[in-house]
Amino acid sequence: MRFGRSISMLLFGGMFALAGSSTVWADKHDTGKAGDIVDTAVKAGSFKTLVEAVKAAGLAETLKGDGPFTVFAPTDEAFAKLPAGTVEALLKDKAKLTSILTYHVVPGKVMASDVTRLKSAKTVAGPELRIDSSNGVKVNDATVIKADVEASNGVIHVIDTVLFPSADAAE
Fold it and tell me: In terms of Cα–Cα distance, which of 23, 21, 13 is closest to 119?
């Protein structure tokens, strides 16, 4: 699926977000006016691998566009948990990298207050993410460690694990 400016026109069948209290980003990262998704990730300093991957896949321009987007952003530590050589291999395989990255994006700006009504959300890549808010918030096997990081064109929810559309995608 091509991930371009037309993403903002996709219909999002219901609000999606993460339950729990909103975490204030300003404590360490207050820059005044919020930047776009990419700029916000760069300024945070803990998404270097994600930003490198977004650029390698050619998605930076899109994620700097109008949106709105909801991005489940794995930290550098999340990428470090992958088997040795996985990140390097993905950076060389643009199609697979794009599929994985777009699996982290849900169309629309959705905040943490609405998740209790949902069990899943359709991603830009196509497959759905499983949502479990019964004990904290889990998206598939990832735990949301910071929610509602606002950007000018959407919102970032920080996760501790890289998401894959299927179990064999990491191999």
Answer: 13
Domain count of the chain? Answer: 1
- Residue 23, token pair as written in the block: 């975490």
Name the phi and psi angles at 165, rounded to 5.
-60, -30
**Is this structure's pTM higher than 0.90?**
no
Tokens 């069990």 found at: 119
Is 171 part of any domain? no
Cα 46 from Cα 115, distance rounded (Å)? 25
* 3 inside domain: no
What region does 66 belong to: left with phi over 0, alpha with psi -120 to 50, or beta?
alpha
- pLDDT number for residue 116: 63
Pairing of strands 128-132, 105-107: unpaired
Give a yes or no: residue 2 inside a domain.
no
Res 112: pLDDT: 85
Domain that holds residue 42: 15-164
Q: What is the CATH number of the domain that holds 64?
A: 2.30.180.10
What is the predicted pLDDT for the residue at 118? 78
The rounded average pLDDT for each run of 10 residues, N- to C-terminus, in the chain (171 residues) is 34 30 36 81 96 97 94 98 97 97 93 78 94 90 94 96 73 38
